[in-house]
Amino acid sequence: MLWRDVCLNCVNRKQVQSQACYLDRDFVVMATRTPPREETPAGNPVDKEWVSEHARQVSRMLPGGLSVLGVFIITDTEAKDTLTTLRQLVFAMESLVSSEQLWSPAEDDVSDCVALHVNRKTRKTFCRTFDVKDPKSTAKPADWRYQAGVCSSWSMVSCCLHVDLLVPLPDNKTDPENMDKCLKEELRGWAQRLESGVCLMDGRKLAEDAELPGGQKRNVRQTYTAQILVTPSEQRLADEEQRCGGSVSIRGAVHSRAYLHSNKPKARLAQKLLKRDAVATVTTRVQMLLEELLTSEDENKSSSKQKRELFCLPHRVFCPLKASGPLCVCDYQFSDESVCEVTERLKEMLDIDAAEEDLDSSQEAPGEITEREVGAEPTVETVVALEPKRNSFIGVAMATAVALLATAASMLYLNDV
Amino acid sequence: MVVTDSSDSGTILRVRGPLEFKCQLDSTDARLMQKVISRTFATLHSQVKSESCVLTVCDSSLIIWPNKGVYVTPEEITPNTLCEDIHQWIQTDEQESAGKRSSKKKNKKSSAASVINLRLMMEVTKTGPLSAPILRRTLQKSHFLSTTLPMDCVVRTTCSDTIKDAFERLLEALTHQLCEMEKVTLQHMKGATLLVPEPLHFLLPEPKGLVTVVYPVGVPDSQLETHRKELHQQFELPDDWPYFRRANAFHFSNEPYKDGYLRNPHVVLTHPTLDNGKVYLVQGIYSYHHYMQDHMDDNGWGCAYRSLQTICSWFTQQGYVERAVPTHREIQQTLVDVGDKQGSFVGSRQWIGSIEVQVVLNQLLEVTSKIMFVSQGSELASKGRELANHFLTEGTPIMIGGGVLAHTILGVAWSETTGQIRYLILDPHYTGAEDLQVITDKGWCGWKGPDFWDQTAYYNLCLPQRPKVI
């Protein structure tokens, strides 16, 4: 009985608003195997934390419109035996992934996650969904169908968004943990401002129920450029004056994009997904940077607290899922990393074999440290180079078992080749 | 101060929007603090002048980038489109507010200039690719100031103004307002505390029109007299009307009053035309107080109290006093306090008359009043000149009591040659809801003839005198 290699599906949610549940469809665009953990010997029960962490890392690599949909397992056992485990996995994973999301959930968010069981011997699939908003929800049956041409009718909305945030740090509490708290607070406010901002598509303001224009030709990929207009939050009319021990500012631009599965996507959905991607990409990068700072400052306890430090947030690199499809996943590259580290991570997390030429780093330029404050006293500004010490998922490949699974898994890839 | 040109029935463009003001004050040295503040204002100036500055027309899909050659979307509109054509793009509510006549088509012309509301926003997207973000951590003990500047600018346009003209002027107005705000902020700084500079609009007599002044929030009117004196000099205004007190700020028609009372219901009436006659009306703003309001059932006995409340509201609205309109109980208590009534008066349903009104106005609001006495109602027909003079010089509502009723007189229409007279009456005996249509249709606020009065009863009139201050 092999409880090995629980895998994850990365899918796109098609937001079909309809009365009958059976009309809801989610499109799975990719199934990714969770890399095996180093220390786990065979025969152990599925490691929830490990899988959830994989899900968290993967969801950071998905642009808007794509999200981790659920879990699948390929095993010899009967479906009914794995259902409980799958259910636990789904909830654990969803809870970790959503804890990183700083936007407020919308009413029309679909909250069903998928648990798929594949019987390795019979190749039979057993698919159930759970409503992760309801801790008491029971498994609902769902249909698992292979479909060709899923990826051909995607539209993409994108924009280049300028970020300019300034947050005070409390007195005597300027360590990375407090920075994290303060920044999260500020990012939440920023997310709210974005959410209530006006979104233009290709230069026009559309009614929410309107469909994005174009989409006449079936196989032509539609791309839209969005513009977002915001007002600072009205609620902050109360003036604040506080003693602080310092401040943190984040200035620069991010490339944000969302994929929509439809010839005629609705403006409201496009806006929502794009804005969420914008929030996610900034949050993710800040998280990554703070994670690095935390580990590096832990190690250098005697680090002299420089008065002013500048850190570059990693820039976003895109990698197409398949050569022909328009869908891309992304990764973040720190300024001192090389491109091959990106391809390694893509392989590890998403099992994608990407060549360096396939990667698109043109959407963002790496952060440049050339700005100086007008009128500031000349101080030595240190640029701290961080060595990424990311949790490695290097798994020792166990030859036979993996080979078997690899063959079994390839059946599930919804390739449009 | 931004002065808008006045011309007949143009359109007023009003842009509002918050601008974030954030800065760190490293030292407590006043000069250094001022430098930081000025620098922060300079950043805001460049924001407003940048290509990211956007003005959106409320309730429409119109968006204008004033610093990109006044670029407009949707593209059917160009910078050379006439400003007043913007109206056609605005979606008005189907439901009109209570009391207006049945809705006509959208382009109904009213006598007052129409207002187009705009929002000040910032575009956060740019054409990429741009540099990925940099995080800067500064460790420095300091004061962090964070507030929002409530930008509010007004520009009056004529029918021949294009969007380009108007929006360039709007941008100038925004820049100018930032300068004013900086001045006011620096002037009223106390240590590291900033007072929010708040713009208010004031309607001056034609041809001056709407004027915008920035006052610091939290500083009461009483401490801003010097500022107001300068303004009066600048605009050559007489010193006997408080044009620039905060309470006199211009009220835009699309903003409902939060307290729910109707303001100046008489303005929707058609005033009588008499041969060689003129209309003399109350000046400024009052709110309509009548029976049954505020969950107070004073039906049958409270009419004079309500008239007094209407008069008090006038003094509050014009900024002469900063107290709320007194309740029946407060009115009664005041009369007890001055010794005019016994203690048992409080909580009773006893009537009051014009003398009591005079006493309360004096005691609570420090307002003096003249009393006019007529021995019979028919004599009121001959009081045209006095009443006209009152409205000309004082402009306050008049309380009239006699027989068993009390009313408020808001104006007279009087002909010097023929002696014809009409009285604009606000009736406190109304018991219904604040429905302007009902109140005006049924005559609860309306013009009455001399036969309105009981011809044989005697009447006392209380004519409140306006304090001659600014």
Automatic annotation (TrEMBL), chain A:
Subcellular location(s) per record: Membrane
Keyword entries, A-Z: Membrane, Transmembrane, Transmembrane helix
Disordered as annotated region, ranges: 357-376
Positions of transmembrane segments: 393-414
Cellular component annotations (GO), alphabetically ordered: endomembrane system; membrane
Record GO biological process: intracellular protein localization
InterPro entries, per database record: ODR-4-like (IPR029454)
Main location: membrane
UniProt family annotation: Belongs to the ODR-4 family.
Stated role: May play a role in the trafficking of a subset of G-protein coupled receptors.
Protein name, as recorded: Protein odr-4 homolog
Protein species of origin: Gymnodraco acuticeps
Gene from which the chain derives: odr4
From TrEMBL, chain B:
GO terms of molecular function: deUFMylase activity
Regions that span the bilayer: none
Pfam families: Peptidase_C78, UfSP2_N
Domain UFSP2 second, first and last residues per copy: 38-257
Keywords: Hydrolase, Protease, Thiol protease, Ubl conjugation pathway
UniProt cross-references to Gene3D superfamilies, sorted A to Z: 3.90.70.130
Domain UFSP1/2/DUB catalytic: 278-462
GO biological process: proteolysis
Domain of life: Eukaryota
GO CC, one annotated term: endoplasmic reticulum
InterPro entries: UFSP1/2_DUB_cat, UFSP2-like_2nd
Similarity section: Belongs to the peptidase C78 family.
Protein's UniProt name: Ufm1-specific protease 2
Source organism of this protein record: Gymnodraco acuticeps
Gene giving rise to this polypeptide: ufsp2
